[in-house]
Amino acid sequence: MKNLSSRVNSTSPLDLDWLGHVRVNRSAIERRCSSLAGRRTVKKEWQAAWLLRAMTCIDLTTLDGADTVGNVQRLCAKARMPLRSDIATALSATDLKVGAVCVYPALVTHAVSALEGSDIPVASVAAGFPDGLTPLQTRIDEVRGAHEAGATEIDIVIRRGLALTEDWTRLYDEICAFREAAGDAHLKTILGTGNLASFSNIAKASLVAMMAGADFIKTSTGKEGVNANLPVSLVMLRAIRDFYNTTGTRVGFKPAGGIRKSKDAIAYLVLIQEELGKDWLSSQFFRLGASGLLGDISRQLEFFLTGEYSASHRHAIG
């Protein structure tokens, strides 16, 4: 198993002066996002092309307490062939694959085995997912263990309390420790934005994560009351842009939680193109944390080909 890219972000010094100058205009952010759907519509073959791109950026995920080896193997089979064969053939997309498969650490070895030879990365949540409240050494060991088990991407979660109290130095130090423990794996840092109370906290936490070596910043665990949405994503994308303009380092973005409809996936792709440009429109720099989304994209692509919607069970996950 190999990474989609050898790119791994390196840590840079914590710049508290930079954080002190962060300002976010909530009304402007919300106005920008509310107008997005009306200003940007994608139809017919262009919609199909955008949906195929979105499918390649999905982190196909199962994070359920009832996960078994069997359902992880079924998920991996779907990752290898995310589209029904007749649809894939009609769209000349028979080599299509998702961005990654994401599982709990205990199931990493089974996912690695099921994906052998596919070049699809295995991602693992770690660092006390979903709340980040276990002892720091336990969280570090979990990151290291997931990497040693074969995960080439690690989705760590921050302690939201450190952001809420603006203890940026401790937050930075913890993420740096996870960066070191992850080795050459890509580090995707989950901010848990639904718990962070303000756009300012989200922007600052995004910058701290990138300074500490995150390869991606991610909105949510999927377990919060409020998960991914466009305003939060816009704040994070602008932090990514500021970090790139200042340091020259590209960091990826992953919205996660509650993304189930094709129109939502397109909205995120459009937002990224407008804010960051086409260089970010690939699985190297953009992921969608979702599983249910895959079925809706498949239904929309079948509608594009046939003019009729099929039942959801015709596009099952596994």
Task: Describe the protein's architecture and organization.
- By secondary structure, the protein is an alpha/beta fold.
- It has a single domain (16-315), classed as Aldolase class I (TIM Barrel).
- Helix content is 47%, strand content 10%.
- It has 14 helices and eight strands.
- The protein has helices at residues 16-20, 26-34, 36-39, 44-56, 69-80, 85-90, 108-114, 136-148, 160-164, 168-182, 199-211, 230-247, 262-275, 292-306, and strands at 58-61, 100-103, 122-126, 153-157, 186-190, 216-218, 252-254, 288-289.
- An eight-stranded parallel sheet has the order 7-6-5-4-3-2-1-8.
- α4 runs antiparallel to α14 and α8 runs parallel beside α10 (168-182).
- It is globular, with a radius of gyration of 19 Å.
- The two termini are 22 Å apart.
- The relative contact order is 0.16.
Q: What attributes does this structure have?
A:
318 residues, alpha/beta, TIM Barrel, 47% helix, globular, disordered N terminus
How is the topology of this model organized?
Elements lengths: L15 H5 L5 H9 L1 H4 L4 H13 L1 E4 L7 H12 L4 H6 L9 E4 L4 H7 L7 E5 L9 H13 L4 E5 L2 H5 L3 H15 L3 E5 L8 H13 L4 E3 L11 H18 L4 E3 L7 H14 L12 E2 L2 H15 L12
Helix pairs in contact: 2-12, 4-13, 4-14, 8-10, 10-11, 11-12, 12-13
Concise overview:
By secondary structure, the chain is an alpha/beta fold.
Report the helical percentage: 40-55%
Radius of gyration: 19 Å
The overall strand count is 8
What series of H and E elements makes up the topology? HHHHEHHEHEHEHHEHEHEHEH
Strand line-up of the largest beta sheet: 7-6-5-4-3-2-1-8
Pairing-aware structural class of the strands and helices? alpha/beta
Number of domains: 1
End-to-end C-alpha gap? 22 Å
**Major beta-sheet overview:** 8 strands, parallel
Mean pLDDT: 93
CATH architecture: Alpha-Beta Barrel
Q: What is the CATH superfamily classification?
A: Aldolase class I
Low-confidence stretches: 1-5
- Content of β-strand: 5-15%
CATH fold descriptor: TIM Barrel
The count of helical stretches stands at: 14
